[in-house]
Amino acid sequence: MRTTVPTLPAMPQQRTPRRTPGADIEIVAAAPTYALLAEQVADRIAAAMPGTAAKMDRAVFVAHVADGLRAAAHPLCPDGRLWCTADPDSHADPREHVHRGPQIAMHGAYGFDVMAFHLLQWNDDEVELAFVGNGDWPDLNVDQVDELIEDMAVHLDRLRAVRAKMAAIRTAAAL
Asked: How many angstroms separate the Cα of 74 from the Cα of each of 16, 71, 87?
């Protein structure tokens, strides 16, 4: 049985509803284990929906939350990094591990994989933000420019959330 941990989708959909940047990511970055992650998510849900949480025993509620997290999860990194997508090729060499977070990019009439980035860590070095220089920029009409502007606002929120996650990972590593 493989242990799994939730993550951002590898290819987030465009025009997602605006939320507080980093609100969900901070939980994953701060949780050193999957069990603690389930506890912290359960606490967040209980605070937001006390009526639902009060209907169940705490252990049952946490187990229910953990089941939901596993349903939307990726394999856990063998080195225990909750933010890492655990790509088997990146972890195959026992002398050198490359930890990569999910890639976040913009996709639309203006191009595919535009301004892509992800968290990256070589072995035990500091976590960095890696930008991928792909993307094709065709000539755009006014509607396509509007789409690009709208998507850039969402993409900036995602970048801020990943920056907050990176800072939390670095802080946790320093402890």
From this structure: 21, 9, 10
Global confidence as pTM: 0.57
pLDDT at 9: 42
Residue type, 130: A
pLDDT of residue 152: 92
**Distance of alpha carbon 158 from the chain centroid:** 9
Q: Which amino acid is at 18?
A: R
Name the percent of the chain in helix, strand, coil, to the closest 5. 45, 20, 40
Rg (the chain; Cα; Å): 18
C-alpha distances in angstroms, 97 versus 112, 124, 138, 161, 175? 28, 9, 37, 24, 22
Kindly state the average pLDDT of the residues 136-157: 87
Side-chain-side CA neighbours of 109 within 13 Å: the count stands at 12
- Here the contacts of 69-75 (C-beta below 8 Å, separation 24 or greater) are 69/5, 69/6, 69/34, 69/37, 69/38, 69/41, 70/4, 72/6, 73/4, 73/5, 73/6, 73/7, 74/4, 74/5, 74/6, 74/7, 74/102, 75/2, 75/3, 75/4
**Residues 6+ positions from 39 with CB-CB distance below 8 Å:** 62
Q: Is the pLDDT of residue 24 over 80?
A: no
